[in-house]
Amino acid sequence: MNELDALPPLERMIRKQIMERGITDMRVVETMRLVKRENFVAADRRDLAYIDEPLPIGHGQTISQPYIVALMTSKLELQPSHRVLEIGTGCGYQTAILARLVREVYTIEIVKALLDEAWERLMSLAIRNVHFRYGDGTRGWPEAAPFDRILIAAAARVMPRKLLLEQLADGGTAVLPVGEERNQTLYHVLKKGGELIVTEICPVRFVDLVGEING
Fold first, then answer.
1. Around 34, how many Cα atoms within 13 Å sit in the side-chain half-sphere?
2. For 180-200, what is each residue's pLDDT tens digit?
């Protein structure tokens, strides 16, 4: 047994899946240590909470693997003053991490049961700087825009340029997956002077973004 194998599952996840894979933002690392993934999965899957895989959370949705959560969060370069739009609340794990790092999170989920469960989890963790909305995330949250950052936790078929141009603040960034089921890429998007500067990060595999405006 090596040193890593002897660590508790959460700490092993932090060291092996996150830090050893190049996540150097210690605010992100410490937040993922604080927000325990086991609280966001079903009771019968808690023994799997810290494995390096997405896990089903019901309704055809998943909780992303820890490394992808850390990667997306770190690529946003979050500051305590930021207001963040999250599309795809899911179980609330990514939401809770964002909420610990920024001033306000506006999160949208199209599956009501998932949104209700996420709300209950975050309330139980005394997280009070999150605004929840049940509805079509592809429309964003126009009355609260512009946002300093946008994170989309499901894959649009094509880059949602209209959403990003209208609801991302100038100088703001977004991180999101785009593509068909077996050919998706994670992107970093910077809005500058009314234009979108798009940079590829890595191949990924997400559930599809569900909504009227997917593209």
1. 16
2. 878 999 999 999 999 999 999
Supply φ then ψ for residue 52, to 5 degrees: -85, 60
User: Are the beta carbons of 154 and 87 closer than 8 angstroms?
Assistant: yes
Token pair 């825009």 in the structure block, residue: 145
| Alpha-carbon gap, residue 210 to 153, rounded angstroms | 11
- Cis peptide leading into residue 142 (ω within 30°): no
Secondary structure percentages of the chain, helix, strand, coil, to 5: 35, 30, 35
pLDDT confidence of residue 20: 95
Section 51-79 average pLDDT: 95
Please tell me the distance from the alpha carbon of residue 171 to that of residue 149, in angstroms, as a whole number.
Answer: 9
Model confidence, pTM: 0.95
Domain spans, the chain: 54-204
Whether residue 124 lies in the annotated active site: no
Return the CATH number of the domain spanning residue range 54-204: 3.40.50.150
Contact 32, 97 (CB under 8 A): yes
Q: What span, in angstroms and rounded, lies between the C-alpha atoms of 170 and 150?
A: 12
138: amino acid identity, one letter: T
pLDDT band at 214 (very low <50, low <70, confident <90, very high): low
Asked which of 3-17, 32-46, 167-181 is least confident by mean pLDDT, the reply is 3-17
Closest CA to 94 of 112, 113, 202, 75: 75
From the candidates 64, 74, 81, 124, which is the catalytic residue? Answer: 64
CA nearest 50: which of 62, 64, 37? Answer: 37
